[in-house]
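Example 3.2
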Amino acid sequence: MITRLLVANRAEIASRVFRTCRALGVETVAVHSDADADLPYVAEADAAVRLPGNAPGETYLRADLVLEAARAAGADAIHPGYGFLSENADFARAVEAAGLTWVGPAPASIEQMGSKIESKKLMEAAGVPVLTDHTVETATEADLPLIVKASAGGGGRGMRIVRTLADLPGEVAAAQAEAASAFGDGTVFVETYVERGRHVEVQVLGDGRGGAVAVGERDCSLQRRHQKVVEESPAPGLRPEVASAMHEAAVAAATAIDYRGAGTVEFLYDPATERFFFLEMNTRLQVEHPVTELVHGLDLVEQQLAVAEGHGLPEVPPARGHAIEVRLYAEDPAADYQPQSGPLTRFEIPGVHGEEPGVRVDAGFASGSVVSTHYDAMLAKVVVHAPTREAAARRLAGVLSRARIHGLVTNRDLLVAALREPDFVAGRVSTGFLAEHPDLFAGADDDPGAPVAAALALAERTRTERTVQHGAPVAWRNVVSAPQRTELEAPGADEPLAVEWWGGRDGYTVEGFRVVSVSATAVSLERDGVRTTYDVAVSGPTHRAVVDVDSPGRHVRLARVPRFTDPADAVASGSLLAPMPGSVVKVLVAQGDEVAAGDPVLVLEAMKMQHTVSAPTDGVVATLDVRPGSQVAAGEVLAVVEEKQ
C-alpha cells in the first residue's frame, strides 16, 4: 500500500495528483526547481525537496536527483505526471530498482510505444488502422499534403506540414533539428496529412496482465501549433458505431503491450469517410483527463494508484452529460502564439476554489506567481460539466469571461470567442478550426471604450496622487484651448492608441461617449445608449503606467506612452530585438553578411519552443551581439541590419 507519494513534476499536474492523495490519506512530496519554489503546489505538499537550478535538464529531467529526493523525503512511490520523465523507460526501471512503486506502465510498454515509427508497426500487427509512411524519395504529388513528425515527440514539437514536394527536404531537416533539441532524438517520419481531420482519443485503463477497458473518448481537435487547446468528452457528432470501433481498437492496442495504469490511444478521424487511424499511444496521464473524469465519474489518478497497488480494473460508469476543457496559456495568439513570461499580478478564475458546482479549475499559478521561461506556458485548465454540450460551452465561456488575469497576455479572449463561435457550438470542429476562423483573433482595439477607460482611470489616479488641491477637477483650465491627449500602446498595434478628453467642473468629457462614473479602478461609459462598466487596474509609475482593462468577455493590457523618450531606451534602426527571454540555439549569419527581408538570422528557444528571428529589411548585418548559448532578455538587441544605401 502506498503511504507517501512523490510527484516527479510541477505546477498544475502536481497539485492535481496531490488533491487525490489528500482524499485517500496518502502523504505527498513535491520537488521543485529554484524558479518554482514559490508556486502553490510546493506549499500544498506535506514535504518538498529542492532540485537546484532552473532548466529542466538540471532539475526535473535529472532522474538521479528525483530518486534522491524520494529517498530523503521517505517516499515509497513516484507518480511522474506528464511530460519530463513520465515516458522515460529508464527512469521507470530506476524507480522500481530503488524498491519504490512506479505509478505507471511497465518500462517495456513505455519503450514499445515510445517510438512513433515502431509503435505504428506494432499496432498494425494488432489490427489497429494506421496511416501509410512516406520518405523524401518515395513521396509523390498525389500524396500531398504531408506531415513530418518527430518519432520521440509530442506537443507539436518537431512537426511540419508540407504542401509542395520541393519543401519536403528542408522541412524534414528543420523537424529533425527541433526534435533533437526537444527530445534528444532527431528521428522523424513522414505520413499523409488529413486536411480536415479530427483528433479523437480513447482513455484506457490496463491491469498489466492483459486486461484493459476503455473509459470513453475525447475530441481534441481545436489546436494551435499542433498542440491541443480545447478538449471535450464525449466526442461530438461521432456515431455510436464509430465510437465503439475506436474503443475496441484502443483496448486492442493496450492489451497488445500488457498495458498497466492510465493511458491514451490517439486517433486521426476523417469525418468525410468515418475512418480513423492510429497516431500514437501516450503511456501516461493526459493533460485533458478531467473531461473524462467528469463525464464518467471516475478519478483516474485514484485508478492509477489502485492498479499500482495491484488492484483490478473498475466498472466503467456510462457517460453522463458533456464536459469541455480549455488550456489557459500565457501566450499572445495575435503574435503567432508567442509565449509570455513574467509575474502574474492578478490571477482569479471563478471556480478555482470549488465554489461553483460543475466548474473545475486545475491551476498551477496564483496571483503574484512568476511564469518562468524555462517551462511550458500553460497556466491552468478550466473545465465545465453540464447536461448538454451547448450548455457546457456557454457556461465555460461565461466562466472565462469573468476571469481576471493581469500581468501577461493570455489566450483567454481567443478561447471565449472560440467557445461562442457558431461552428464550434454546432460541433463543426477540426484541427484546422482556428486557422479557418481568423475573426476569432480580433484584438481589443475593436472595443473603443477600453482605451478611453484606461485614459480616464490614469487621469483619476493622477488626481488621487496629488499632494495639494485634491478638490480641483482633473485637467482644469480657465481657458480651454485643446483636449488632453493620452497615448497608449496596445499589443500587436502598429501605432499608439490616442484618447482625447476634457476634464472640468462637471467631470470628464469624451467625444462619442457619456462618462457615467470614473474612479482609478472602474470606469462606466455609455455609447449609443448602452452602458458598459470596465474594471481597471493601474500599475507602475503614472508617466509610464501599465493598465489592465477588463470588460465582459474581453481583456486588454495597455501601456502609457511617455511624453518624452529616454535616450537610453532608443535602439538603432534595423535592430532585431529578442521577442522574449530565452537562449540562442543557432546563429545563421555572420557580421557583414548581406540579407534580404525575411531571411532567418538566428533561432531563439524559450518555453519549450523555437522561434526564428528574421531580417526586417534588405541590408547588411552590421552588428551581431550574440552566439549560440547566449541567454537574452526580452527586448535585448540581438543584431542590427543596416539598409543598403
